[in-house]
Amino acid sequence: MGTTYQERTMKIPEIHPEHKEYWAAAADGKLLLKQCDSCGEYHYYPRVICPYCMTDKTSWVEAKGTGSVYTYSVMRRGVPYAIAFVELDEGPRMMTNIVDCDLDTVHINQRVKVVFKQSGDQGNPGPYIPCFTPVEG
Ligand SMILES: [Zn+2]
User: Fold this and answer.
1) What is the Cα–Cα distance from 58 to 43, expressed in whole angstroms?
2) pTM to 2 decimal places
């Protein structure tokens, strides 16, 4: 039994100019976060203004790409998929998909790591989107 993950077409995201570096890094398999130069907090999604102290002095940093499932939901209409909030080890929570596993085994506090899946389809490929998959052991 179980619910095997199947590849599905992910909608191509809207790309904002201030996120160009983020998507370029994603194509190289790197997850970027913003870190505030003033208060040191990490945030996601990436914003020009730090949401903690409102400075505009923020820098791109590469995330470790590991975290834990904070909450999740398995959608079972059509191709099943799991939507989750993953709490990154740096602190921010990001909405994402849990992929490449038995979706019935996804659970809260499960350790996961980032993997990238291309959005769009063969005729109209889009940027790579960060998804997460369970870490073995
Ligand atoms: Zn700040």
Assistant:
1) 10
2) 0.93
pLDDT, tens digit, for every residue of 22-46?
Answer: 999 999 999 999 999 999 999 998 9
Distance CA 41, CA 4 (A): 37
Domain map of the chain by residue range?
17-134
Distance between Cα 28 and ligand 1 center (Å): 27
C-alpha 60 to ligand 1 mean position (Å): 13
Say which CATH architecture domain 17-134 belongs to: Beta Barrel (2.40)
- The number of angstroms, rounded, from the C-alpha of 6 to the middle of its chain's C-alpha atoms is 18
